[in-house]
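Newbie here. four chains, one complex. Structure please?
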Amino acid sequence: MIMGEKYNKFSKYFVAIDCVIFGYEDGDLRLLLYHRGFEPAKGQWSLLGGFVGDEESSDDAAHRILKAITGLEDIYLEQVQVYTNPKRDPEGRVMSIGYYALIRVDKHNSDKVRENGAHWWSVKGLPNLVFDHQEMVDNALHKLQQKAGLELVGSELLPDKFTLLQLRRLYEAIFQRELDTGNFRKKVLSLNVLERLEEKNTTESRRGAYYFQFKKGVTDKSFDRLGKF
Amino acid sequence: MIMGEKYNKFSKYFVAIDCVIFGYEDGDLRLLLYHRGFEPAKGQWSLLGGFVGDEESSDDAAHRILKAITGLEDIYLEQVQVYTNPKRDPEGRVMSIGYYALIRVDKHNSDKVRENGAHWWSVKGLPNLVFDHQEMVDNALHKLQQKAGLELVGSELLPDKFTLLQLRRLYEAIFQRELDTGNFRKKVLSLNVLERLEEKNTTESRRGAYYFQFKKGVTDKSFDRLGKF
DNA sequence: CCAAAAGTGTTCTCTCTACACCCATGA
DNA sequence: TCATGGGTGTAGAGAGAACACTTTTGG
């Protein structure tokens, strides 16, 4: 700020939050979208959003909004970027801070979500989105891919215990391409962040696959780079 | 105004821009910092900033501000993130969108810069910065490192022609560690984006080193990954 | 038996890294 | 001559990709 004193001569703007909410279910990477019940763009699909309040940071606002709709606290959230095109919202000048969230579908309050007219959509077949929300989704997916390439995501999206097949399907959904079974297994296990349980899952294969879970107390910094997927 | 009829119950905020301006000179990665001539935090050092105007996007605002102070258009700019802590500016609620810029020191208007009380500081020895500006610098440097690891930066920071020693020193400054001469040379040349000129620079070594320049018409997408530095 | 996933092993290729080594030249 | 950077080459370690193969078990 090179201009002086008070800021009164400058304009103020509405600042909103829009959340790209990722969930993983039935082998599908999904987004939680809302059917807008109000103008502008009433009846179209949009991301979950809200406005930033006087006493909160945008991170706080995003957590507040997510908790209200999913019932969950401690959600993984990351800022994507701000969208400031003066014409992005036809109703007025609103800047929007994009976030992406990773949700444990098995733990969220699905009744509340349904009541609010929300619906999980597969990222492979999204409806037309309102305003610049498709761009937000694209940017968010890119950020998620970066994160997943740098560390093993899973605890934020999968149930507590999961098979390597489920983990691989998650990665295939994130990167939108198929991964080699053997190579994936070796790479993931070499990271030394998973522990095998004695229990097996027999619903997805004849032979049955061991369940795994994330080791406790793994600092998230146990590996610098997960490599290329 | 028509604007915001529907949003009237929500608050509006000042939205500022703060730019982390990187330049490279004398083997040093430097930042352009301003001595604040006004309250709050008068007399301290800060990033170059300004407020977003009614009819412009934040990208536009950042370009406008940078042009006003450096005389340059077509500056490489990238959004870092938004800073929204309600207490970040003691004078009032101001959200700030952080950007980083790469400047050709040899082309910028150094007189204008000096008139405004600005000064280039080496990133290795920055003064105390105002508000959360140090955090912005850290985040910006991290983003720059990411970019430099994905593609060959250089044309945005170096003169049109440069030696591989100068390019290596730039990378050493960005990553803040020493790089192997031979390996750096091989990696960089293998990207096939530089062309050697016939001219040599004899000021930095006895033997003299060939100048290189970026090939014309290289799409910036000529390589997916520069690898690990 | 067959299909499908579980799980292991092998080979080839490429990249990164750490050096060694010669060249050219001004002080 | 020596120091310094310019420039080239090489051997080893490790990661990634492709793929073969064996195991298990419900239908």
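Moderator note: DSSP finds five helices and nine strands in chain A. Strands of chain A lie at 12-25, 28-35, 45-46, 48-51, 76-83, 94-103, 118-122, 194-201, 209-214. Thread marked as resolved.
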